[in-house]
Amino acid sequence: MATRAFSIPVAEFVKSCTDLAQAPRPVLPEIAFVGRSNVGKSSLINSLLNRKGLALASATPGKTRLLNFFRIGERMFYFVDLPGYGYAKVSRSLQDEWAGFLEDYLADSENLALVILIVDVRRGLTELDHQMIQALNMYRRRFLVTATKVDKLTRKERDQQLAALRGPVLSLGAEALVPYSSMTHEGREDLWDKIMQFKS
Ligand code: GTP
Ligand code: MG
Which of 18, 117, 157, 189 has its CA 20 to 30 A from that of 164? Predict the structure, then answer.
């Protein structure tokens, strides 16, 4: 099988912060990853960058608690790994605090160029994902949806899930729906193509 030449940019963790005032310099366009707690945001960042432990991934939900900035390429843009929503096992006040970081960031970042909303292909859009999409539309954020963990389904199940997701996702304003697996890296080139296409 012919493989297309594709080179993954260099990446480096820059810093974690709780609000935009602490965001790194220089200012660069930002591409943010959002989704339910434990859906696979950090794993997806690692897969995209082909770097195993760059973003901290964990079987325990609630691992990512801050805004984590990664510089991509020499000065191309930042990836921002955000706290997941809907993790019931932390206190209400902590959940509210994370939701607060997240919403302030989505509302206020002047450099946020694209949001990648990650959903579990097996589950599709949850109520909280719908709320997130509403917020993205309200703040006029460009976004695309990645349906991850496709390795957990048979070809037939996955095709059914993706067919059921595509219409709603696009009609809610997403630029694209991209199937993905952080385990096999399926979808990696396609997602990079979309990131490059929609980032500005
Ligand atoms: P929080 O930061 O806690 O919100 O979680 P997260 O969304 O960053 O999820 P994380 O990347 O930590 O992954 C959660 C779990 O799902 C880990 O056990 C991962 O190994 C697993 N996982 C993530 N992506 C995939 C995938 O594509 N396929 C499979 N099979 N497992 C995955
Ligand atoms: Mg995480």
Answer: 189
